[in-house]
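Protocol step 4 of 5: obtain the predicted structure for the target chain.
Materials: sequence only (see below). No template structures provided, no constraints applied. The aim of this step is simply to have a reference model before the mutagenesis design in step 5. Sequence pasted as it appears in the construct record:
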Amino acid sequence: MYEIDKEAFGTFLAQLRKEKGMTQKTLAERLETLAVYVCRGSISRIEEQKRTITDIELAGIAEVLQVDISEFFKKDE
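Step 4 output (structure tokens):
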């Protein structure tokens, strides 16, 4: 089974976003073009591990950041 590493996800998301040269606001705006509505504040809370992320949000983030969605998962052994 695969699952999101909840402890590392927020840090990983922030790192990827910054590597792509995006602010939280820019990420939120690009998600909106995919009909995935996540405000800048919610992205901040996700990165701080204070908010969970939905599957649709995860798929949208992977698309906007141009990474394979599997990058966000670890294998549960």
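Step 4 remarks: Residues 59 and 69 are 7 Å apart (CA to CA). The beta strands are 2-4, 73-75.
Proceed to step 5.
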